[in-house]
Hints:
Chain A is of the alpha/beta class. Chain A has 15 helices and 15 strands. Chain A is globular. Chain B has helices spanning 3-13, 33-43, 62-73, 78-88, 102-108, 110-119, 136-144, 159-168, 192-202, 216-225, 233-240, 244-252, 257-261, and strands at residues 18-24, 48-51, 96-99, 124-126, 148-149, 151-154, 173-176, 207-210, 228-231.
Amino acid sequence: MVNTKEKNIYQAPDKAGRFGEYGGRFVPETLMPALLELETAYRDAKEDPKFVEKLDHYLKDYVGRENPLYFAERLTEAAGGAKVYLKREDLNHTGAHKINNAIGQALLAKRMGKTKIIAETGAGQHGVATATACALLDMECLVFMGKEDIRRQELNVFRMELLGASVVSVDQGSGTLKDAVNEALRYWVANVSDTHYVIGSALGPHPFPEIVRDFQRVIGVETRHQILEKEGRLPDAVVACVGGGSNSIGMFHPFVDDTEVALYGVEAAGSGIETGKHAAALTGGRPGALHGAFMYLLQDEAGQINEAHSISAGLDYPGAGPEHSHFRDTGRVTYTSVTDEQALEALKMLSRKEGILPALESSHAVHYAVELASGMSSDEIVVICLSGRGDKDVMTVRDALKGGNGHV
Amino acid sequence: MSEITKAILEARESGGCAFVPYIMAGDGGLGRLKEDLLFLQEAGATAVELGIPFSDPAADGPVIQEAGLRALAAGTTLKAVIEEVKVIRDDVHIPIIFMTYLNPVLSYGMAGFANDCQEAGIAGVIVPDVPFEESEPLEDCLRMNGIDLIRLIPLSAPEERIRKIAEAAEGFIYAVTVDGITGVRDSFGGTTDSRLEQLKEMATIPVLAGFGISAPDQVRDFGRTADGVIVGSAIVDALHREDRELIKELISSAKNIAVAAE
Ligand SMILES: Cc1ncc(COP(=O)(O)O)c(C=O)c1O
């Protein structure tokens, strides 16, 4: 929402919430009045200078924006090609980009007179961000989390509880992120009059993909003016990881009309696309409807949704948002994938070279960007969206590296 | 007149209300589908709502979720259900209505699905994750094959919206009695009755009440205002436990309602 002055030629979604053929509102009738109400309230808030000012205030003084666009000199040296910059979303309060959306939506919900917030979470990042926003704005917060994820992310559960949120264990299905979304939707259907669902990525029924994108656009808007200030020109390539697609769409969107800027979305290839154990919906899936939207999905021949697999809990989702699905088909963004192993290598590399421990999610983008930069010339520029910090992943990384002797 | 509408009106005229049980196709294996359908027909069901299992049933409560997972574990697919219905259709005389989430239909192909449903003698289709705004492509495909798209109307919806959906409805209107998901409930909101009456007055086709109805006295209560009831979780659970007596009792509670009201 910060500084939306530049003109966009690309306009989406349309009135029906479609990005090309993707998106829409595939939800039970009971939710439709709430979605229509949300859309009206959002359009209204966007035009209200008081709302924009309030959001900007929190983004600046509470989240700590704007965060730096950092020239990673030693990483650049190691890549041996293009100059590599890092957009430091990891320096935000709570350690990732998720807070941009959580605060925006919580403010919107409050303005709509809702008293209760629900959210889903996989690793806990979005859950923590939402719990944080709810503490800040004095709202009741309920976070749905798969039983399996609760086991894997005990500390984040405690963190959310410290912040005053209640965490609901979801036993249904496989007990992971997609089941948490299902359960959050079920709860919302039953409590729609006083509750707002803060969805954690650029997913779900219209207008959620648009709202989440708009609240995350601040990443790209800042990056654009920062690189112009530092280099006097736009980057040649921008790279971001894609789970549901929120940090990437926020980063990409302000560059969509700048056709000279190549955009790369990096999905999680898990153990490798060919093994079937991955989370790469855009690279290895096909279109379908889930959680309210028509989008690329991991599914079997009969249309049953497959489990996603990734070392990074934040990328462990079987779909990729509707706007990305559209950009995949139009070719405006190039989607690729990076394995667990490659992401771990990149995590170690950035830690050693720059003293920055990236989130496992962001490490996927780092790996691809380094590879990309190494094939480019030294007067070219690559920007990586460093979506979050890796402190939350230290245990996972230790376990993964234990294949050897437990040392790095 | 639609086959479903006709069956409901007949049930109404014979002094009771329509009773539509929901069962999960493939729960216990597709091999028992014929036996289950014949049992329900014999017990006096007006029509049957046949659920297609889906991995992510976001509109369903625990009972139907678990039945769906059992059916999927038994290898049930939409294609296999359609094939099985084709085989047994001649023995089943009551209308069969599919209840399926959208994605299996998209995967099948919408036009092919509608065509194959027609060949299998399916009378209607309910898709809980397709609201009014998204319904046109599906409605077109089904209409070309003479199949009703059954629409859900939450009684909590704004009046204007209720009217809009009611005007487009075919077969019957599925009045959603509670804000929430499928499952067993002890009580309903205080305004449910009056809202149901309002919807009845507006509607030009029968109105059936569903979601949460699970006991004979609830069937009788709703059957006084609505033209019939849909009972899901209680039936699915009883079939799973092989408690056929409970199902017979539920279905017979829908008979002679007009008499009971006098
Ligand atoms: C640090 C970080 N990056 C990326 C993601 C992936 O989500 P998205 O694709 O919505 O940005 C997550 C999700 O939890 C995350 O925590």
